[in-house]
């Protein structure tokens, strides 16, 4: 799944800043990626503590740059820039305090061009990774919100890859119909990037009018707006998961649909359903959950699950640094 990104990074390595430089999962990933010359890691933290953690874990970080936010030569210039960006929303004292934290400091390294991308969240919450990005990086032109998706990946019984996209499972608590439209469009693009030919299902407890309620109305409205757009992929909704996924159910509940029974991109009505849904697929279905991949930001910044392992950090590092190149 990562081959295209790896080839891109070999040609044009990127600088990736890690906000949690002492975390053993980060150190293992950074050491491996540095040795493979796929990217240039930047570890944030007190140098002595980072080196001690690396030595304890047996990770070779020789030649990897370590930056201590509390002892950074360009700190005052960074504060000046953040004061300008926050435009009265934060005082200079507020900015100084924030930039002593690695999540804000790392985000400013990206904003100022010192790093190309950022990966955080090994110990930080999703909110603590996304908040600085929204305040400093902001959304790219054409995007109104930041959303997330997971790429769910496993090898099927026939030996062939099975791959799906699920959103939004980590950012938007109760998205509106218009926000769901943007989430669906962005997730379709992300799915396509990872080799999925998108067929988008707007999930609900109702299929095409079989149920009633505000949540049903929201998914139906979003579906209608998506169908009215000139999209390069089909959309169906509102639709139940069984009708979206199982061909025999899809034919029964939504006959003639281009998506029913064949969906591979699943848009959930809220974060409760999305978070529960992807974790069921991960834990009961044996899918590898790659993500959350953040969508809509003006720079490549991604969030890790705090339960991630070193292999997941490695893969998310390649995705974070490489998607811009591919």
| N- to C-terminal distance | 13 Å
Q: Biggest sheet, in brief?
A: 6 strands, mixed
Shape: globular
The top level CATH class name of the largest domain = Alpha Beta
Whole-number mean pLDDT: 92
Radius of gyration: 21 Å
Explain the overall architecture.
By secondary structure, the protein is α/β, with parallel strands linked by helices. The chain folds into two domains: 3-138 and 297-322, Rossmann fold, CATH 3.40.50.10950; 147-283, Rossmann fold, CATH 3.40.50.10750. It is built from 13 helices and eleven strands. The protein has helices at 3-11, 24-35, 47-57, 75-86, 92-99, 102-111, 126-137, 177-193, 214-227, 241-245, 247-253, 271-283, 310-322, and strands spanning 14-18, 39-44, 65-67, 117-120, 147-155, 161-167, 200-203, 235-239, 265-267, 288-295, 300-303. Strand 7 (200-203), helix 9 and strand 8 form a beta-alpha-beta unit. Helix 1 packs across helix 13 (310-322). The radius of gyration is 21 Å and the shape is globular. The two termini are 13 Å apart. The mean pLDDT is 92.
